[in-house]
């Protein structure tokens, strides 16, 4: 298989992960194929996912060729995400999680990528990034201005002094994000070698696919299982830890009732969806981002719908 064909396959897996995540329904509090937000609709997510194919392809080529860096590609990705639809920030967290995965998959070079080997290469990709990447990534985040970002005491992406500090102290992405690994899902995954993606999300997807034999049920049930075990960091920033724990407790109850695999479980999921849609505080977007990266690992391993 040529390098270009391999990169196209990797990019297809990454793009499909985004499409499968947003299509799965009903994911409580999020856009899915039967529910929209007032400001962001299902088709905005479809357009955004389509626009990101090229950056995913280029990220895979970085791994296959063993040169260049990811920082500038992140900037290209966020600009494409925003220019191809008018629904705002649709995939910032997901693309920040998946682009290093695409590069790592390129470094592996196999047609199908074992998760253990992918994770090993992924850690190498993250370690190789330097302060120039930090600056590009932080500027890209500031450009998107995602909701729920909040103010932080050090290395705030909106403060000019942050970029002076990055250049002066030669701060790498891993150094910068280590400070916020308990506050932000991307920071957590980058600094832990994607612990939640590989140890929770991917394994939960495999387990649910084995149990349900139904992709939509498996994806939604995996989402519920992830939320039940790990409070959503976006909800924490917007509403506080107690509200986030309440959301996780509701997800745990839905899981206990069977999720989409039982009538009572589905009724509970639908009640969650209605309750989570009151305002913007209970939108578990960080869990959705984790679901995207977990789906990418599953697809790169060889799963096909």
Question: Can you walk me through this structure?
Answer:
This protein is mostly helical and 305 residues long. It is 70% helix and 0% strand. The protein folds into 2 domains: 3-194, Triphosphoribosyl-dephospho-CoA protein (Orthogonal Bundle), CATH 1.10.4200; 201-285, no CATH class. The chain has 16 helices and no strands.
Task: Describe how the helices and strands are arranged.
Elements: H1 3-23, H2 42-51, H3 53-65, H4 71-83, H5 92-108, H6 115-128, H7 131-144, H8 160-169, H9 173-178, H10 185-191, H11 195-212, H12 215-229, H13 233-239, H14 241-256, H15 263-276, H16 285-301
Total number of strands:
0
**In angstroms, what is the radius of gyration?**
18 Å
Say what the CATH topology of the largest domain is. Triphosphoribosyl-dephospho-CoA protein
Q: Which CATH architecture of the largest domain would you pick?
A: Orthogonal Bundle
Mean pLDDT over the residues? 94
Count of structural domains: 2
């Amino acid at each position: 298989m040529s390098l270009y064909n391999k990169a196209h396959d990797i990019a297809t897996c990454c793009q499909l992960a985004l499409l499968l995540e947003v299509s799965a329904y009903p994911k409580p509090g999020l856009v899915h194929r039967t529910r929209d937000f007032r400001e962001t609709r299902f088709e905005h997510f479809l357009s955004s996912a389509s626009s990101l194919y090229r950056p995913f392809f280029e990220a895979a080529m970085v791994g296959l060729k063993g040169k260049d860096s990811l920082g500038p590609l992140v900037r290209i990705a966020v600009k494409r995400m925003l220019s191809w639809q008018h629904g705002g920030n649709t995939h910032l967290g997901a693309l920040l999680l998946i682009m290093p995965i695409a590069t790592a998959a390129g470094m592996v070079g196999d047609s199908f990528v074992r998760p253990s080997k992918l994770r090993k290469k992924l850690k190498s990709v993250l370690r190789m990034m330097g302060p120039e990447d930090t600056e590009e990534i932080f500027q890209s985040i500031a450009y998107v201005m995602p909701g729920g970002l909040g103010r932080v005491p050090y290395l705030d992406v909106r403060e000019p002094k942050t970029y002076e500090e990055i250049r002066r102290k030669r701060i790498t992405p891993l150094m910068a994000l280590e400070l916020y690994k308990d506050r932000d899902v991307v920071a957590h995954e980058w600094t832990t070698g994607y612990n939640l993606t590989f140890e929770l999300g991917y394994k939960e997807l495999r387990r649910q696919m084995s149990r349900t034999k139904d992709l939509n049920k498996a994806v939604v049930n995996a989402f519920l299982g992830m939320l039940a075990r790990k409070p959503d960091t976006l909800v924490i920033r917007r509403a506080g830890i107690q509200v986030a724990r309440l959301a996780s407790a509701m997800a745990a109850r839905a899981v206990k009732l069977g999720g989409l695999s039982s009538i009572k479980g589905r009724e509970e999921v639908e009640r969650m969806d209605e309750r989570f849609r009151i305002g913007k505080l209970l939108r578990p977007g960080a869990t959705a981002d984790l679901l995207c990266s977990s789906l990418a690992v599953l697809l790169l391993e060889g799963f096909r719908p």
